[in-house]
């Protein structure tokens, strides 16, 4: 057992930290200003940062294998944490932003040669963006068997009908391709009914209807969270990813690394919140004491530190398990980090906000926005409660005869 | 001891419930549609509702004495709860919306004849709106001695300089008057330094700078939360409310009833959230069961009910104490409801959101917006932590020799 | 609505407080010393206190009607709170101790003339003690249909077989009678299977086997918590209470007032804990400050006060509902106080212990013992979780068509 | 970074698990029976187990260096967890029980040759037991400068006067030596006032006065928690450990490894609690479902697993830091595990108790006793609140100029 970073990770951490200090953090203010007028597109300065990151060898770090940076999950995880300190900018600048990351992994692993050339390549080059269309407004989508969008074979084409929402990134005009989950065979066994298919933006019948808000945020810099309607949308049969009935298995495979990324970025956000909380507490005085001298605030700071240290180790161990025994062997841990991380980071952000007074709620600090993002992750890939139930069942099974 | 409503309250509750059912709830959808295009002004339909409410004798219910409906705090409190089910519309329609309510109380109690005629009357008639400018961006405003806005006598005028923010309602063009807290004498004993003064919108040097957001919301239907700058703003000396040095005492007097109103409206919001949570839980199915059959969801519903019942009684008792022994005798309870209510209602709204899935975060349900409002109340009149410390000190004092 | 005490209550409160100050609190030390050598019997000094309480008109206060003090639930509740400050002594001294209270109510309401003469009279006179035998070690007894003790008619007798545990009071040699719940007809509809029967101590086949501990406490001053075995125990048929199949209904009727008593006593214990916490915090110094000056401790004190105030009101309203609309109309509230009170008081006691340092865990303060008692109430009449589920079901039912 | 066990650890874990299965768990029942009659001495069967453990090479595993098993903290930690499944027996049988462990480390590191020969040797051989006398009843002992016991040089002797309590192990007649913390120079700088001295049991003036209870438990199998009085207790000057004024530094050095041991044993206890909770939940049925099918119980099980996984990693990392950068470099983590572990394990044990119903509170299951032990650790080496404050201060210091 060894808790130190290996040389590759240490070197990349240093390089990424330098990039953050030199390029990302200094760009935050201008980014917000551009965002105020850039509509559903990302602020233009992001393109320069992408070029710079690529030049510095900080590109596609998330992607294992020859197509990416070739890092293990355990090596990438500490880098994702660093990006989490300024997640809107850093992840996009390094081409490590969701949902493209999961979509690139998926295409690298399951895409046909044609699909990889047409969509994976420009994604790897940061030329286009993509979306992943799973959640539906009309059913509890945490149960994949509820999914009602249909994908029906008709000659050389598939016809897609259905309604999806909270499709992150799809409001961005540069989002060129949607990966859509639907049912090809409602009569098959429950985990063989679903398939995934590529639907290019602009296909007739596809309507990007509106941006869903998360609390009051439209998250336009990430391309928002779209409601999308599919009305007799026809795509050639070669747009199906993998085989018919393979959708559920592909969705499962897509989950693991994404959880690591999300959780590590949240930990980075939590670290930044603790820093902001400390600085603010030291700088404000009430009733003759700095806020930092208030016992309750000290309690929050200590609790935050204690929780972050535990979370980070669990996420790193999960990454190590995925690298050494695979997603299946890391099943409990992958669920555990999904349960533990958003809840803890939400608590930390709440306390950081409280230390900032009313300003903490506003656009003048990154805390309320980060909070809304974390809160929404308590639903990502199904609400926490579904994951807890499944984890408990596995624990109980050890003692069933 | 008796936990039943008196006849006046019972009659008004019935009348108000009818108004909610017949006029308010049916208007919610159109209100949102108008809000999308009405900028910082309230949706126009509110004027019809105001006329209707007034016709039905549901007007200025919050205000004791001859100028208002003449109700006690204990009689008004259950009405505020009912308004809380649709707070944006119902409180405004009945001319019972903050911050006007506190401002009208203040003017009724401390205003000169001239001030009452000029500002209280149109407020009582619902013709204009008002704001209360206390919180400052540069200091921890929960400690009133920190306030740095200056109000300096210069001949027949006062000159106001300073910066305020989170001034609710001040973005609304119909907000005609601001009540501003500042220091007239920084050398006086700490609670005699502050005064309150009326500053009409449009006075030279007064800039309504921008709307502060709360978790992404601009709250434009309430007139937003403005940042306001005072640069050598001159008003005639008769605009001072009460006497020089009386600002702290007036602020204290203003607090009690407002807390009752806020807390009861939050309880109304919580009741609506429980209703939405139950209806949703009954209507969605995952893994072969309705969400209502999930034990964890049942636990949330039960906890919500248990917490609401306790909160309501504490707020009602506080109202009764204010009516019978006055604000000073109800000091502990007034702080207790401020500590307990937002925390509990925030928890209930969070669970209602969770039951709604991602939709609960969005503009399609009133839950996320209500949550942001409740969260911001953990800062109103000072953060919870300040109130807890003060309450604890009073408890400890019982045992000091 | 009115939150003041009526005259009867106010007078009895004053009288009882005097008794506490003059007789109960001063006896606590000697009580503990006698308890150390009195085995399963109560400390002898309790008999003098009983005589004194009776002389002062503080006797059977819990019992409505002519046989008792004739108080309503709402009138008795504040008296139970006062007793809760020193519950072992005060409740017994005034003949208001569980389980006798519930048993007396039960016999007053459902006992035959013979049963009342033989057992209710000496109980009312404080001459004997009694026990209530419901919980069984081998089944989840919160589901009454699980009860496996059998009561079988055989000619003029009933024959009882089964095993019970946590039968409070039964280790006390002066506990002369057990009220036993068992099944007379396992084939009847589920709520008509059970009956209750009187089993005198000393009946052949009845073995009082051992005292169950609660944490490390044997609770000998209350007569412990016995495991009791019934092996072909025969009692005359007239020992059945009410009718065959009436056991479940009698058990339900017994619940309401007992909940009020328990919860109010817990609130009294919580008030005493807050007092001890404050006094201790003021008297100890670490790192140059009293513990009372620590922000975290102030937070605990404030939270304790806020929770107590809410709980008390809910319990009092529940008592009022029982008096005005009966147990059935107060169903939600009766469950709510059972859910809320032990949880909150447990939290308060935990904090009071923490302020006392290691001593708080020990026999030198009443806190750890009180904590264990409260913790055990999270199981009384079924675990909290069962009550929450049932309460949630009632809430959901409002919205089912 | 690597989360696997090294070969030494893996081999010792296997060997210890075998010993647990073959010797410790099967002895639990007899151990409890002997404990009921063995007074303040440990149950006699422990001597056989000690011999067996020694034979199996499972002896003094906690002690680094040649005198012990030579393991690092990181290697020993997983073994302590295994012992924690049956802590009373396993730690004592392997001569790895507190407070001897800390005392042996202390003597190995700071003891003179004479002290090591006289006391360390028989301790290493498991022939005698020892105690560590720090906490005092009259002061808040978490602040070491409060300690009031005096150690005064008088010719060739030191004279000790003072009162200590919660001196674990000192009721055991086989506890032959006490290490006592007191002040040799109240005028010295605050961290140079204290010294440690050896006081043999039986020295005139030393009175082992009584056993303090912890939630009703006397913990007699560990030798209880004594109150000890020192009245002019004289010991030769060579009984001083290290130098005069070195007491604080020695106490600090003693802390680190002990924290690892305690925390890992608690994690072992938590694992056993989860196992018991699952088994019970699967075996009991209410209202037509097993308790394991209740959503709330599943939530507890999942939360328990999630918390345990995080805690364990943090404790292991702390051990690794102690091994690689020393106690000082691990300061934050050593405090973090002390804050996080007892709180989380207490929660888990509470839930396991709740699943067991009333039986969970009693002597029939190991849960309530374990709970009391964990609760008392929230005070060990100072209450959590002191550690949080100190940790927060270190965090804040990063941002102070």
From TrEMBL, chains A, B, C, D:
GO CC annotations, alphabetized: cytoplasm
Pfam families in UniProt: Acyl-CoA_dh_1, Acyl-CoA_dh_M, Acyl-CoA_dh_N
Keyword Oxidoreductase set for record: yes
Domain of life assignment: Bacteria
Domain Acyl-CoA dehydrogenase/oxidase C-terminal: 245-394
Domain spans labelled Acyl-CoA oxidase/dehydrogenase middle: 131-233
Domain Acyl-CoA dehydrogenase/oxidase N-terminal: 8-127
GO molecular function, one term: flavin adenine dinucleotide binding
Names of the cofactor(s): FAD
GO biological process: fatty acid beta-oxidation using acyl-CoA dehydrogenase
Keywords in alphabetical order: FAD, Flavoprotein, Oxidoreductase
PANTHER family: ACYL-COA DEHYDROGENASE FAMILY MEMBER 11 (PTHR48083:SF13), MEDIUM-CHAIN SPECIFIC ACYL-COA DEHYDROGENASE, MITOCHONDRIAL-RELATED (PTHR48083)
Subunit structure, interactors included: Homodimer.
Assigned protein family: Belongs to the acyl-CoA dehydrogenase family.
Name of this chain's protein: Acyl-CoA dehydrogenase
Gene assigned in the entry: acd_2
